[in-house]
From TrEMBL:
Species for this entry: Rhodamnia argentea
Pfam families per UniProt: Glyco_hydro_17, X8
Family classification: Belongs to the glycosyl hydrolase 17 family.
EC assignment: 3.2.1.39
GO cellular component, one term: side of membrane
GO molecular function ontology, one term from the record: glucan endo-1,3-beta-D-glucosidase activity
The protein's name: glucan endo-1,3-beta-D-glucosidase
Swiss-Prot/TrEMBL keywords: Disulfide bond, Glycoprotein, Glycosidase, GPI-anchor, Hydrolase, Lipoprotein, Membrane, Plant defense, Signal
Segments for region (Disordered): 345-368
Membrane topology summary: Lipid-anchor; GPI-anchor
Amino acid sequence: MAKLFRLTTAIFFLSVTCHRLSRAAYPIGVNYGTVADNLPPPSQVATFLKTKTTIDRVKIFDANPDILRAFAGTGIAVTVTVGNGDIVSLSKLPAAQSWVSANILPFYPKTLINRIAVGNEILATSDKTLIARLLPAMKALHSALQLANVTKVQVTTPHSLGILSSSEPPSTGRFRRGYDRVIFAPILEFHRQTKSAFMVNPYPYFGFSAKTLNYALFKPNAGVFDAATGINYTNMFDAQMDAVYSAMKKVGYEDVDIVVGETGWPSVGDPTQPDVNVENAVSYNGNLVRHVNSGKGTPLMPNRKFETYIFALFNEDLKPSTSERNFGLFKPDLTPVYSVGVLRNEPAGGPAPASPSPTTPSTSSGKKWCVPRSDANDVALQANIDYVCSRQVDCKPIRAGGACFNPDTVRSHAAYAMNAYYQAFGRHDYDCDFNNTGAITAVDPSYEECTYPEDATSVRLLEKKSVTGGSRSPHRKSNDLFMGFCCFLFAYFILS
């Protein structure tokens, strides 16, 4: 009996260990974007990823508290993002400490936050102030984490391949002149000192031509020969990664780890984009998954595994162009657009059938809510709170002791306030504009004891006060002008 118990225990231990190792060895993550009005609730997304896929890490483009709460206890690692608009203020330690206190400490370690991405492709903005403040913000956030005794959360920043002045062939890869020693060497030194990864966003999709399509898609091709190294590259992803490595080596930091923050291929494009289709999306993303998971690395970085985040988890219907709206691996109802081998017990293959999902959230009621856009920064959202709470809307639910006070973050409070305003003042699209920081969703954002109003009757309005010289909502100015003009015309015709 004792021998049987020991054998059973050993088998259980080995199975758990092997399961953990198999998941840890799988370096594919996904970018969880939310620029859409039809996505399922974060809790449903977290459960889906944990139970139905092999994806064990996600990258989000903000520090959305609803998403961070949803991933608590799942074991799925989450990379959060600081908005570009917050970089300047966070370059000072006190502000960085406040940000960490509001956006990391309430959720960590129950939610496995593994990284903070500071901004997104800052060099591509050409904003000299942001570029100059980027590294100070990274350092301040790292110091804030250390002071809070959070030692396992890395700090990094994503870069487009526009940081390179040369990339073909890969051995010629170098950072843009003027930025190599002044910007990138100090950033790479920070990564070396803090043992964090340099994050890049290689997109063969943006670099291919008709002649190099197969090269971009990992399909059979003649390859591109690099005479300096004698290497014949057979796929553009490896070439782009090795160009980044060559640039890092030229400034003396080839030992720093690299993380692929974004890469992907859309499944639908405009009529002028014949190579944007499901077949090519399957080829790129499916081959990418197999290639990265093989552990082969690249010709200049053999046997190196790259933590890689596919763009994107969902098709996002509020993106500006057809191709941008169709980068997703999954539709909003959680059915796959196509299969690339991330579903459990399913190999990478062709397009998967889009069958109805039993867990699809019901939106047939026609109810809508107003929430902050994922790229809205805290300064703009605080202004929204201040405006709403001065316009008769009862903001007690987001005050201390209120049902929606926790989590005590600007984004969470703004979500409630913006929605309350939207419901109370007409539920028109412009009532959720807030200077382009609001988005309408059909998914109820309510959580726990916090119930979001869903119509005018569920919003408590305070007694109207006489205010002289008060500010007006920027998103209502054009409507007010129009109404004023209509009143003028009406009066003119009546009196004439």
